[in-house]
Design brief:
alpha/beta; Aspartate Aminotransferase, domain 1; Aspartate Aminotransferase, domain 2; seven-stranded mixed β-sheet; two-stranded parallel ribbon; 11 strands; binds (2S)-2-hydroxybutanedioic acid
Length: 398
Amino acid sequence: MFKSLQPAPPDPILGLTESFKKDPSPDKINLSTGVYKDERGNTPVLNCVKAAEQRLFETEEEKGYLGIDGLTEYAQSVPELLIGRDHEVLQQNRTVTVQTPGGTGALRVAADFLSQRLSVRRMWISQPTWANHTNVFQAAGLQVESYAYMDSTGTSLDFPALLESLNQIPAGDAICLHAACHNPTGIDPTLEQWREIGEVVRNRELLPLVDFAYQGIGRGLVEDSAGLRELLALHRNLLICSSFSKNFSLYGERVGALTLVADSEVAAQTALTHVKSTIRANYSNPPKHGAAIVACVLADAELTGQWESELAAMRDRINEMRRLFAETLIAEGVERDFSFVTRQQGMFSFSGLTPIQVDELRSKHSIYIVGSGRINVAGMTASNMGHICAAIKAVLNE
Ligand code: LMR
């Protein structure tokens, strides 16, 4: 049976990290997968995580299954963090949260739920978007279409084109919006633009699915959720797919959540029964350890404070790398204006490098970035910056 198979293409993001691992060059640099590195090039285990793990080690009494929807304490903390504890949707008990294996797991559960239980047929994604969105949504049986996002310079939002394409979407379709730190462009709408987007989405009777994988990585925990709160002011039904991979540096623990905001408490609880049966048919119930860490940190004021300052340090370092990247390119004598990099948010920068230049970065300089030209700024350090910028200069001059 298997002999008839042709190899599937490598994943456009994780496939690059696989190739990177095999690259024998001592100077290789991986700026492909969105993983944060500290100034020494290591992905840190946060101190608040170590402290929580110590507590869990001392107090955990069993390794039984979690419920289908995951850890209860975790499910309570997540929406408070995403939306703000005092938000009316929480006061009115209009949310339900299920723990999922990472943000990708949340997207897949959401897509299965929409496609199988609500008969949603289409999902609209920004052009460009995270390389795995299409894959996940199509696997759940949704037809994937795209709406305009970036302007022709590749450095800012084309807001009129965005609104125009949203205005073409048929009622009843779902639309995937990035809450903050748009992946791959790093270009986010302003608050005023969020309001307008929310109005068009409401007038067109679309269902917003908010992908929120980078809370606290852009401007701050509260600041990064401002767009989401604008949407909540206008929409009584909404889905949020969130992740603690980046902001807790818990990548391999696969800690995510799907939060559903419904019109009423009863509607939310009924939707939960469907989400749970979707999960049961998929992976049965989620893994425990990562969610237990997050729940432990968020339940303890001191650990939460420690987490917030460790998160702020990651955010500040990324912004510092943005500044240094733009500065070093100038110092290298690169004529193209890269100052837009300092105005983008989050881990990624959309560099504008062509697929050929991206290939040359890899084949001639062992620098790995995503084929679209997306660079993981969070993987840059003061010590690899010179090599990165010299290589970019070389490929621009080819
Ligand atoms: C990324 O965009 O690089 C990350 O979200 C990791 C992934 O799963 O693609």
